[in-house]
Write a structure and sequence with these properties.
About 35% of the residues lie in helices and about 25% in strands. With about 240 residues, it is an alpha/beta fold. It has a domain at about 10-95 and about 170-240: Rossmann fold (3-Layer(aba) Sandwich), CATH 3.40.50.300. The strands form two sheets. The protein has a six-stranded mixed sheet, with helices on both faces. Strands 2-1-4-5 form a four-stranded antiparallel sheet, with helices on one face.
């Protein structure tokens, strides 16, 4: 069953329709249909091997379905070639990873600005936007610091700024607090919550029920390649309790 969250057609950012992904005789996804509306924050949860990472790869265009349809931000990903998928990711998707994926030989500002240059911004414009984002995320004073000298929470904020450089229609976060201590994890949780409150659409893969409860408005549970539950979260209560 397709889940719409009550959004009209024009508000749908992600639409998966009867998606199946086979790896040999193994079905990592088996008939998954899912819709995410603009401005929603959705947490994707499930045990290891449940299919949630494969689902995330479908939405990001990093993998292709064996059958079914994947439409993100109005783009039919099944119809794009590899070059088209790469352009789609650069222009429409922001991605945050568990282990940050920062370039160790570049200071924080240049890590962020590089993402802007990859989507066609001039170097000066990319640095200007990077500085603006660092200010908004509370790390402007860390602009000349290299990743190895940043705390875990600071590195994830740099990674988040990098992901926001292209003003993405969808921000994907893959275990964004998985490599952080509890204090840094709380900082990133609050950051994602604040971004969503400003209108950013989020899809978060996490094992952490606390992160899901505080950041998400919906929790989608996956097991054996299928969606087993799709429930609303009363974030007004859980967010207040977590602060």
């Amino acid at each position: 069953m397709t889940n719409t969250g009550g959004h009209e057609e024009r508000d749908v950012v992600v639409r998966l329709t009867d998606v199946r992904k086979d790896f040999g005789d193994y079905a990592a996804l088996d008939g998954v249909s899912l819709e995410i509306g603009a401005g929603e924050a959705v947490a994707l949860m499930g045990p290891s091997g449940s299919g949630k990472s494969t689902l995330l790869n479908m939405v990001s265009g990093l993998d292709r379905p064996s059958t079914g349809s994947v439409v993100v931000g109005g783009e039919d990903l099944v119809g794009l070639d590899e070059k088209g998928l790469a352009l789609f990711r650069r222009r429409r998707i922001g991605m945050i990873f568990q282990f940050f994926n920062l370039l160790d030989d570049l200071p924080a500002l240049d890590n962020i600005a590089l993402a802007g240059q990859l989507i066609g911004l001039k170097a000066s414009a990319a640095r200007k936007r990077a500085l603006e984002l660092m200010g908004e995320l509370g790390i402007a004073d860390r602009k000349n610091i290299y990743p190895a000298s940043l705390s875990g929470g600071e590195r994830q904020r740099v990674a988040t700024a990098r992901a926001l450089m292209n003003q993405p229609s969808l921000l994907l976060a893959d275990e964004p607090t998985g490599a952080l201590d509890s204090r840094s994890g709380d900082q990133v949780t609050h950051l994602l919550t604040d971004l969503n409150q400003l209108g950013q659409t989020l899809l978060i893969v996490t094992h952490d029920p606390r992160l899901a409860a505080q950041c998400a408005r919906r929790v989608v549970e996956v097991a054996d390649g299928r969606i087993t539950r799709d429930r609303a979260v009363d974030r007004a209560v859980t967010t207040e309790a977590g602060r």
